[in-house]
Write a structure and sequence with these properties.
The complex is a heterodimer of chains A (about 110) and B (about 450). With about 110 residues, chain A is an all-alpha fold. Chain A has one domain. Chain A is built from five helices and no strands. Chain B contains twelve helices and twelve strands. In chain B, strands 5-12-11-10-9-6 form a six-stranded mixed beta sheet, sandwiched between helices. A four-stranded antiparallel beta sheet of chain B has the order 1-2-3-4. In chain B, strands 7-8 form a two-stranded antiparallel ribbon. Chain B is elongated and about 90 Å long. Chain B starts with 17 loop residues before the first strand and ends in a 7-residue tail after the last strand. Classes of the chains: A mainly alpha (about 110), B alpha+beta (about 450). The interface between A and B is large, with 30 and 41 residues.
């Protein structure tokens, strides 16, 4: 088994793929292929934060801070509803859709 | 006339040399080299034989020699060729062990004997083929005269399409399957299969030709992924056979990786019981992970992209299936935002998650990807023409093979696919990967057509 080397999205397209993926991985963010046993909620949100930081210049400071706030909020929602029973996971998924829209706008302008 | 004359010794406390008889082979009175069991003759493991060899002969002998000799004795005894077995015994250059060496052998013997439990298949982790004892398939099986490594698959598929569809093997022995991979001696097979012990390609699926029979012939038609169940590692083995197969593959893969990268150290954390303590899925994950690491080493260290193409295909099929199932679930829950249609929304989600997974995978394997690299993921593949250049964006390209994961069937009639082939990278094939849930026509390969068709 290899040691873990975290992948960080390098551009907006890669960031968008991560965000869209999060919707399918929520709320537990556990891998089902068997190749990423280390993947969990904390790990994926670290990837998101690192990816936002990596693309901060393209995003702009204001949008970056907004996305970071959204990310923190999403993380709290998914963490509070790991079994997808209380509605908070659905709320988190809607925020992912909002984040996706923002990133698509950035990509169009870039 | 004879410079060296050796003799075999009768079994017993007075023996000071090699014994070979119908009960097996001994070194002195205490140290078993080959033992008769209900399933046939078994010899010491490679590691034990190596330790004995070093003790007896120091550095004056080729590595693995004693193990090979023990294996030959076992094989001859299995074939009821006692005279041949004794000749092999006589070749072990020992006669008249002195008291001190006999004493030290007696001290070591219980440890070797302890490992002869016939009910306990074993492979010490990381030992190349060593101690990989397995049992024969069933009560009616013949003794292990056709010794072959369990993990060693047969030769690559023959070019004959009709025959090759079923002849591929996933390296898993299935009791009662009627094939002859029933055996027993693994490490000792180097005499018959010398090619595996170099940096040559390993024996299991490592080329697209192995998993797409007919690619060699390039008939111009879509070639289905023939042995899909075996390739993806799904089989209905009994637990013991599953464990044996896993242990054999584990030993083989670790040895393969170490041959390419001697610094490799398996960092897998096993539960109590080791590999036996893993679930079947856990064992499959372990093997798939090591296969991927081996493929990555072939690419990074040896510059051979072939195994990586195969393992990426294996990985992608699982990733596409998992992503598709999740996307369907999200769509059913009304959580996707369809821009054009439900299908488009599902396909878009699958695309993104699989791309994310693949980047995560290659990043962890230190495989460079992106523009300018030989491995690309969702990057432009340019086609230079007299009037300038244009591009297509394959989901991924690894060397000369493009990969496209999709919900819809695509053929060479698709402008997108023809565009992939026209790229400057000149792919020799495009692999189409579709979710298994979509039916029988899922994953297939489109070989490069004549340029006139592009």
């Amino acid at each position: 088994m290899r040691s873990i080397k975290m992948y960080v999205p390098q551009n907006i397209s890669e960031l968008l793929d991560l965000v869209i993926s999060m919707q399918l991985l929520a709320p537990k963010f556990i891998d089902e292929t068997g190749y990423f046993p280390f993947r969990n909620l904390d790990y994926v949100f670290r990837q998101l934060h690192e990816g936002l930081a990596q693309n901060r210049q393209t995003l702009g400071d204001e949008r970056y801070r907004e996305l970071m706030r959204m990310s923190e909020r999403m993380r709290g929602l998914f963490g509070a509803d790991p079994e997808d029973k209380t509605g908070e996971t659905s709320e988190g998924c809607k925020m992912i859709n909002q984040m996706e829209d923002i990133l698509r706008q950035v990509r169009r302008k870039a | 006339m004879y410079e060296v004359m050796r003799r075999l010794h009768p079994r017993g406390t007075a023996s000071t040399g090699i014994t070979v008889d119908p009960d097996g082979a001994m070194l002195g009175p205490d140290c078993i080299l080959v033992r008769r069991t209900a399933e046939g003759y078994r010899c010491v493991s490679r590691g034990e034989a190596g330790a004995l060899q070093e003790f007896l002969f120091g550095d004056g002998m080729e590595s693995g020699w004693l193990f090979g000799q023990c294996h030959r004795i076992a094989k001859a005894l299995d074939s009821q060729e006692i005279a041949l077995a004794q000749i092999f015994g006589l070749r072990i250059p020992l006669d008249g062990l002195d008291h001190e060496r006999l004493r030290r052998l007696a001290l070591a013997a219980p440890f070797i004997k302890a490992n002869f439990n016939p009910d306990e298949p074993r492979i010490p982790a990381g030992e190349p083929g060593g101690g990989e004892w397995t049992t024969t398939g069933g009560a009616g099986d013949a003794p292990a005269t056709g010794a072959k490594p369990v993990a060693a698959s047969p030769a690559p598929a023959p070019a004959d399409h009709s025959e090759s569809l079923l002849s591929l093997d996933d390296g898993v022995y299935r009791p009662g399957s009627g094939d002859d991979r029933h055996v027993i001696l693994t490490g000792g097979a180097e005499e018959e299969e010398p090619s595996r012990r170099s940096n040559g390609p390993p024996d299991d699926y490592t080329r697209l030709e192995d998993v797409f029979p007919g690619l060699r012939d390039a008939p111009g038609l879509a070639i289905p992924l023939a042995p899909i169940d075996g390739f993806l590692g799904v089989s209905a083995l009994a637990d013991e056979a599953n464990l044996e197969a896993t242990l054999a593959l584990y030993g083989q893969l670790v040895a393969d990786i170490k041959r390419i990268d001697p610094s490799f150290a398996d960092q897998e954390l096993f539960p109590p019981g080791g590999i036996a303590g893993l679930s079947w899925q856990g064992r499959a994950n372990l093997i798939n992970g090591l296969r991927m690491e081996r493929a990555a080493d072939y690419y990074r260290i040896l510059g051979d992209v072939g195994p990586l193409q195969v393992e990426t295909l294996r990985f992608l099929q699982g990733a596409v299936d998992a992503a598709h199932a999740k996307a369907i679930k999200e769509a059913d829950a009304g959580l996707l935002q369809p821009r054009l249609s439900r299908e488009e929304a599902i396909g878009s989600r699958v695309d993104s998650l699989v791309r994310f997974d693949l980047r995560d995978m290659f990043n962890s394997l230190d495989i460079p990807f992106g523009p300018g690299n030989d491995v690309t993921i969702n990057n432009r593949d340019y086609e230079t023409t007299d009037s300038g250049s244009q591009y297509r964006v394959p989901d991924a390209r690894l060397g000369d093979v493009a990969f496209d994961w999709t919900l819809s069937s695509k053929t060479i009639g698709s402008a997108q696919i023809r565009g992939f082939f026209r790229a400057d990278s000149q792919p020799r094939a495009v692999v189409i990967i579709r979710p298994s849930a979509l039916g029988s026509v899922r994953t297939y390969l489109l070989p490069r057509p004549d340029d006139s068709s592009l």
